[in-house]
Amino acid sequence: MTGAEPGHRPPGAHDDIAALIRTIPDHPKPGILFRDVTTLLLDPRGLAMVTARLAGLVPAGIDLIAGIEARGFIFGAALAHHLGKGLVLIRKDGKLPGATIGIDYALEYGTDRIEMHEDACVPGQTVLLVDDLIATGGTAQAAVRLLRQAGARVAGAAFVVDLPDLGGAEALRADGVPVTSLVGFPGH
């Protein structure tokens, strides 16, 4: 990843992208400021900017892009297409039609499971994980473990939005995954 430190973003560097992301207060519950990227997706120029800027942050030697369900599929597919790479789908339990491998992970209240096709990547391939937003990082950390379980080398994780106050990006870095994002919003 580029920058003086992992995830480094010069102040104001992507204000044009941040301006395309709508904030919805009190969703899904009171006190939450939901960062809605659907407004960004409605803007073809905005989606093109995000794709090009994420592509500029991709480390050399990436074999595959891995997108986390569901909005990670959108940004991951755009980035994979832009870079001429394949796309690994990381989905919720029971959604993929072929033979899968999966991993369970903890949520605030209970557990969840993500899966990928068992033949989605070859051991030793280098993968970049992509999603729209990093908050607490639970799903992204599970995706990293799943990719590593398949034998992939996770070279980094890229997000359009980081909510740094929730610590997800730092948790990924602590697990040895370089993280970058285009915009950051305070709070949750």
TrEMBL record:
<dbReference type="InterPro" id="IPR029057">
    <property type="entry name" value="PRTase-like"/>
</dbReference>
<comment type="function">
    <text>Catalyzes a salvage reaction resulting in the formation of AMP, that is energically less costly than de novo synthesis.</text>
</comment>
<feature type="domain" description="Phosphoribosyltransferase">
    <location>
        <begin position="60"/>
        <end position="164"/>
    </location>
</feature>
<dbReference type="GO" id="GO:0003999">
    <property type="term" value="F:adenine phosphoribosyltransferase activity"/>
</dbReference>
<dbReference type="Pfam" id="PF00156">
    <property type="entry name" value="Pribosyltran"/>
</dbReference>
<dbReference type="InterPro" id="IPR005764">
    <property type="entry name" value="Ade_phspho_trans"/>
</dbReference>
<keyword id="KW-0963">Cytoplasm</keyword>
<keyword id="KW-0808">Transferase</keyword>
<protein>
    <recommendedName>
        <fullName>Adenine phosphoribosyltransferase</fullName>
        <ecNumber>2.4.2.7</ecNumber>
    </recommendedName>
</protein>
<comment type="subunit">
    <text>Homodimer.</text>
</comment>
<comment type="pathway">
    <text>Purine metabolism; AMP biosynthesis via salvage pathway; AMP from adenine: step 1/1.</text>
</comment>
<dbReference type="InterPro" id="IPR050054">
    <property type="entry name" value="UPRTase/APRTase"/>
</dbReference>
<comment type="similarity">
    <text>Belongs to the purine/pyrimidine phosphoribosyltransferase family.</text>
</comment>
<keyword id="KW-0328">Glycosyltransferase</keyword>
<dbReference type="InterPro" id="IPR000836">
    <property type="entry name" value="PRTase_dom"/>
</dbReference>
<keyword id="KW-0660">Purine salvage</keyword>
